[in-house]
Write a structure and sequence with these properties.
451 residues, mainly beta, five-stranded antiparallel sheet, 6 helices, DUF4374 domain-containing protein, signal
Amino acid sequence: MKRSFLNYKTLSSIVLLTIGLTTACTTDDNGLDPVEPTESRWITVAAARMGDNPGDGNGGTLIYSLSSEEAKDPTVSIAPFDNGFIVPSNRTARLQSSEDGSTMFNISYAGDTGGQYSKYTVEGGQTFTQDGTGINIAPYVGTAPRWIKLFDGDQTGAAVYVNTESVVDDNGTPEDVTDDIYHTEATMGVVTINLQNSWITGFEESLIPLSEEEEANGYYISRIDMPTLNAAGDKLYIGARLSKVDPATGESDNDYDNLGSKTIVLDYPSLSNPSIITSAVGHGNTNGYRSINSFEYNGSVYQANQDDPNGSYILKIDANNQYDDSYVFNLDAALGVEESYVLAWRPAANGKAVVAYRDASSEEGVAGAQGFFALVDLNAKTAQKIDAIPYEADFYLFQYQGFVVDGTEIYLTQAPVGKNGNIYVVDTETGDVTKGAELVNVEGSHYIGVF
């Protein structure tokens, strides 16, 4: 018989005490430093309710926490859609958590509360207690900001936006000759937030500097996301998506040659001196979507790309703040598939990662063609599909946001749209997979990760 958990206030004291005892020997400032797994920690499950269409996640976000022991226990059953904590957000909330799982951070997405930052102490079950009054970053980056928590010991969050404007250059030709050149200027805004004290620590706007040739051919940066701090702590990398207009007409041009994958580099913490680096290996976008798309490991930053004509790559940016084009890790080749697309991923401190992906074999489900999980080794550049996690066509990963890393273990959720599923725990050293707590679903809704 399954055991349902609704209130963890008593267990909360025990777990928070355990966390306090283990934190002293845990260092995880960049998210990948070697750490020992905690004896117990909170695992917060995030659930996205349907709005108008199955899988859209626009009906709001609910969270529910359980201990890591319960998360691994298949006799435990939780129902966040019935008794979870409603996270303030007009649409799917953008969530982050502290490295030890004791705090949740949220910035509301869209609507009247869009851009409102708040944080919560995790107390078990549906109990999340707001810490402080929060802050509104909408005046800086709008009501639907893309943001991420930097791996600097839970100190800083960074939110970004890009505005684009069509510009016409007069070539100085006679008036009876139409020879104007259309290009698009992209203006980037970046704001940093002190997550502990809820104040804004920096804000800068700047033009995104593509080359003159690229701009003359109509290319521009149309979307940015996923700021990542380098190992030295003096540069911020921001993922980018390229788009293009026809320079002769100014109309959108969707049939164009992919340029090399690009990343914007800023001085940190000043957020100044923007430049762009370009990969000669990958030719897809690097902005990701809902989940963190790049991570510092062993002095370098490893970054997934998407929409690459040769399938997704894991790219490497070295300590010199340039792409390492000698590092070639293509998922199509490593997995023996075609049209791979990294939907979300997360490495552990040993350089082994769980990757959520789709490929040409993915079936068309209620929310589009979705995917599978693979165990990836960044050092060996190998990948193996995780068959122990079941695949269903209605499993939705495009909106996936969070994995939990605890030592060499990685927690994730698997539940198709409108169907029950489970938490799974992958031991990245052995490849063993534990089927954990049941996730009770409701019609049209889905789970978007653990924190």
